[in-house]
From TrEMBL:
<comment type="subunit">
    <text>Part of the 50S ribosomal subunit. Contacts protein L29, and trigger factor when it is bound to the ribosome.</text>
</comment>
<dbReference type="GO" id="GO:1990904">
    <property type="term" value="C:ribonucleoprotein complex"/>
</dbReference>
<dbReference type="GO" id="GO:0006412">
    <property type="term" value="P:translation"/>
</dbReference>
<dbReference type="InterPro" id="IPR012678">
    <property type="entry name" value="Ribosomal_uL23/eL15/eS24_sf"/>
</dbReference>
<keyword id="KW-0687">Ribonucleoprotein</keyword>
<keyword id="KW-0699">rRNA-binding</keyword>
<dbReference type="Pfam" id="PF00276">
    <property type="entry name" value="Ribosomal_L23"/>
</dbReference>
<dbReference type="InterPro" id="IPR013025">
    <property type="entry name" value="Ribosomal_uL23-like"/>
</dbReference>
<protein>
    <recommendedName>
        <fullName>Large ribosomal subunit protein uL23</fullName>
    </recommendedName>
</protein>
<dbReference type="GO" id="GO:0019843">
    <property type="term" value="F:rRNA binding"/>
</dbReference>
<comment type="similarity">
    <text>Belongs to the universal ribosomal protein uL23 family.</text>
</comment>
<keyword id="KW-0694">RNA-binding</keyword>
<dbReference type="GO" id="GO:0003735">
    <property type="term" value="F:structural constituent of ribosome"/>
</dbReference>
<dbReference type="InterPro" id="IPR012677">
    <property type="entry name" value="Nucleotide-bd_a/b_plait_sf"/>
</dbReference>
<dbReference type="GO" id="GO:0005840">
    <property type="term" value="C:ribosome"/>
</dbReference>
<comment type="function">
    <text>One of the early assembly proteins it binds 23S rRNA. One of the proteins that surrounds the polypeptide exit tunnel on the outside of the ribosome. Forms the main docking site for trigger factor binding to the ribosome.</text>
</comment>
<keyword id="KW-0689">Ribosomal protein</keyword>
Length: 96
């Protein structure tokens, strides 16, 4: 099971990184906080102080096409916000 899927690179997530030394990731929905902490420490070589998780509901989407009205949902996902020890950073672009 691949626990960390990808980092969340949004304006809100970058503000958390700058002010509070926190990083956001999309993670496997079956992973718990202990597994997420171990995966981040192993992958990036940092000390994790706290892990907060949230299940983000998918947005309802709809559009009009030639065939008529089409509606659906974007998929839900689990988000993990990782607090890292002061002085340590995670470089997302070194692991590409």
């Amino acid at each position: 099971m691949e626990i960390i899927k990808k980092p969340i690179l949004t304006e809100k997530a970058s503000l958390l990184t700058e002010k509070l030394n926190r990083y956001s990731f999309k993670v496997d929905h079956r992973a718990n906080k202990i597994q997420i902490k171990q995966a981040v420490e192993e992958m990036f070589g940092v000390t994790v102080l706290a892990v907060n998780t949230a299940v983000v509901a998918g947005k309802a989407k709809s559009r009009y096409t030639k065939a008529g009205f089409v509606s659906g949902r974007s998929p839900k996902y689990k988000k993990a916000i990782i607090t890292v020890k002061d002085g340590e950073t995670i470089d997302f672009y070194s692991t590409l």
